[in-house]
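FIELD: query
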Amino acid sequence: MTVTRLPTRTPGAPLTALLVAGGVSGVLIGCALAAATSTPGLVEPSAAVVVGLPLARMAITIAALITLGLALLPFLSAGSSRDRRLAVLSSAVWAFAALTCLVLEVATVHVGHSIDLALVIGYVGDFRTGTALAVVAGGAVANLVVAAVGYRLPGRVPPAVPVVAAVVTLLPLPPSGHSFEAPRAVLAIGVVCLELHVLAATVWTGGLFAVVVLLGRRRDLLADALPRFSRLATVCVFLTAVTGMASAGLHLVVTPGVTWYEALVTTQYGLVLLCKATCLAAVGLLGAHIRFRLLPAIRERRRTALIAWVALELSVMGLAFGFAAILARSPVLG
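FIELD: result
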């Protein structure tokens, strides 16, 4: 594979900061909505756990999307040592965030207890979320090894291997935090919708991040890579919207004791869901602007405000990921 040297100045740090800032904002807004709709008298974990857990889940999501986006980059453009170095870092963050999330999950079950290794192991064995987080941590380490080998031995790792490793690591966690009572067939549909929703959103955001961070200042490479990614992103936008509505609708419709339209405006789940849906709609419009207004100029290798528009899109998408981290632990009735 041809290795292309990229300029040292890339928008990576600012775009990453905006993505993370959006996620943190989404988590904090979601926590505020949770506090406003919580039931008095229930024993709650400490504030550090209540806020730290969705932040850790949000960190898992962002590290996963960056890792998967970087894995997709060789299919869109020439590879470079920079993307392999970033993949090593993002995989390490992914593993650390998963382990942190696991410890915080244990703290929500054993409120007031000191967390030790025995409690963590017990949680992994007894709870599907614990099992999923352990699998994700192990998978992230495997991604780290693949990225490190790819960095040390360029061309030795087939391009499909990092993609498969990232996807396999991504999929175990989403269903573990979303449970509801329903017939088996409905549950199966819900799981499929949720997995497709998470995968499509991750590919969409991660691919955009990787393309713009590593190729955004190289008009020649960007003119080839972005149109290719734009076709994939269009499919991902459609899948994200359809599967998101289906998954949320199933949660709202099958929950006994409340109508879906009441739950949508009176519960924490519904309010956070509305916030997330608004963000995704805004991101879709921003993506459409890039595709239909900026892409023709990019194909002609003309200067555009692509990075500024992508920065806005990633900020809003980060906000949506923050809301998603809250939804992962939000029952419809609660």
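FIELD: remark
The domain at 12-327 is CATH 1.20.1630 (Formate dehydrogenase/DMSO reductase fold).
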